[in-house]
Amino acid sequence: MVIVSTASRYAIITGFVTSIDGSSVVLSSDHSLSTTEKNEHFDVDRLESMGTHAMSLASVASFMSDDVERTKLRRLVIDLDEPHFDKIPKSMVEKVSSLIKGLNKEQARAVVRSLVAKDYALIQGLPGAGKSTTLSCVIRCFLKLGQTVLVTSHTHSAVDNLFEKFMNDVPEEDLLRIGNMYAVKEKLAHLTIEAKLVKIKEDRFHAMKQILNSVKVVGATCLSVNSHPLFSFRRFDVCLVDEASLAVESSLLSALSVCSKFVLVGDAKQLAPLVQSREAKELGMGISLFEKLQKNTTALTSLNSQYRMNEKVAGFSSTLFYSGTLVCANESIAKECIKINSTEKPLSRIYSPELEHSVVFMDTHSESSPESQMSSQKGSSATYNNFEATQINQICNKFVRLGINPVDIGVVCTYRRQVDVIRDILDEKYVEVNTVDQFQGRDKSIIIWSLVWTNSDSRCELLHDERRVNVALTRAKHKLILVGCHSSMQLVSPIMCSLLKLIPSSDVVSIDSI
Ligand SMILES: Nc1ncnc2c1ncn2[C@@H]1O[C@H](COP(=O)(O)OP(=O)(O)OP(=O)(O)O)[C@@H](O)[C@H]1O
């Protein structure tokens, strides 16, 4: 595989060498070189692979090209030039007001700022505050104003989730989902080019060109923008990036380069881009473009009213991470609790349906149960706690006996290995067990957080990570049960210590008492 550049534009195409002789090199590529000058000098570099890193590198190289669009983009994302906004014209208000109607004030403001942005807008969505609801409205408004939209994110599932929110409100012929029919959700498979072409019997090449030229909303992962031919001949009015705080900056550059302006949606207090190299992290690769651009506060609107957690559950994250700004959208969300069928009184606080006891800690440390210690085999990926898993199984069984549907219970694990240990032990197979990272963007009525760690002498990276702690704390709608060793948690990290201070001692339930 090779990558082709000119003196002024890097990484114009990637392709394969099909033949070489003394005077020529023949390449095959799905992108055209027709936009380059005649007799231009081409540099052909060998590319070892087209994996994620190579694609990101190609994206950075192309971003450095000497053209008007990329020069403007570099001023925004490297020099951090202040973005500009227009005033909202009356004609625009008339066109979009019916679409904005169902939104709350913050959401409506975020939509309007996105529409009038000349360069970019940022939407910070606190947990459960309606990021996807807002973004899907932004997309419909742009369409109503006759603009074309590229919808992107770092994973297929994030793009699919957003598409699902608005696809029924947009004519099918205006939508294209880029990606293999089998990589995208079944519900969206009919929007891929493969599926659209199945119906066409004659001159498919012409039909494909027509589809690619006419679609108004295109959904693609940010890395696939590097390799899909559509982006070599079409630009879009706006690029919308969902979960932007999770994407490595370089992976977004190609998508931003083919659009006139962009809207990033995310939350810098939730998970950051996953960067394994410590050196790269120290050099800033773990800082997302979303977080970096927040320096320009004029670009930022924040969605603080959330529709997920009751006031007790939300209060923890609000106090620890958002200086009290994360609030419940209305009174019924604020007061909602689990509903159970029990005549048993008093019920242990673990199972209590009272709002007051929505967040409890089950302390597994016990002199009479030395088996409560975790096990660790070489590195954190193999850290688990069998005793804690057994306790969690009992908690789930009891909730189900009390009338809770198992699909409304989730077990969030600090460690990947603990997910397998709990899944093996669990009697209720419809209880979902997953890592904190897998639960981002999702919720359950009851969340049981398996903390695992019972060691106070060594460092536990995962429980030092404030963003990961925030995600774990904001998945429960009505009841959050932390299961672990209370004394170890007080020492494991400053954030866990601050968290425990918010749980009254009466809501710390000892294993010996149940
Ligand atoms: N303005 C609104 N009025 C009523 N309900 C709303 C409003 N906005 C969002 N919701 C509801 O809040 C819930 C969360 O919305 P949504 O899925 O858009 O949130 P999100 O911010 O994308 O979630 P996450 O934090 O998980 O990423 C949904 O059930 C949605 O219907």
UniProtKB/TrEMBL annotation:
Domain spans labelled DNA2/NAM7 helicase helicase: 103-198, 200-278
Subcellular location: Nucleus; Chromosome
Source taxon at top rank: Eukaryota
Gene Ontology annotations of biological process type: DNA repair; DNA replication, Okazaki fragment processing; replication fork reversal
GO cellular component entries: chromosome; cytoplasm; nucleus
Domain named DNA2/NAM7 helicase-like C-terminal: residues: 286-486
Signal peptide (from-to): none
Gene Ontology molecular functions: 4 iron, 4 sulfur cluster binding; 5'-flap endonuclease activity; ATP binding; DNA binding; metal ion binding; single-stranded DNA helicase activity
Family the UniProt entry places it in: Belongs to the DNA2/NAM7 helicase family.
Catalytic activity reported: ATP + H2O = ADP + phosphate + H(+)
Role, per record: Key enzyme involved in DNA replication and DNA repair. Involved in Okazaki fragments processing by cleaving long flaps that escape FEN1: flaps that are longer than 27 nucleotides are coated by replication protein A complex (RPA), leading to recruit DNA2 which cleaves the flap until it is too short to bind RPA and becomes a substrate for FEN1. Also involved in 5'-end resection of DNA during double-strand break (DSB) repair by mediating the cleavage of 5'-ssDNA.
InterPro entries, sorted: DNA2/NAM7-like (IPR045055), DNA2/NAM7-like_C (IPR041679), DNA2/NAM7_AAA_11 (IPR041677), P-loop_NTPase (IPR027417), SF1_C_Upf1 (IPR047187)
Biological classification of the source: Eukaryota, Metazoa, Ecdysozoa, Nematoda, Chromadorea
Broad class of the protein's primary localization: nucleus
rRNA-binding as UniProt keyword: no
Protein name, as recorded: DNA replication ATP-dependent helicase/nuclease
Keywords: 4Fe-4S, ATP-binding, Chromosome, DNA damage, DNA repair, DNA replication, DNA-binding, Helicase, Hydrolase, Iron, Iron-sulfur, Metal-binding, Multifunctional enzyme, Nuclease, Nucleotide-binding, Nucleus
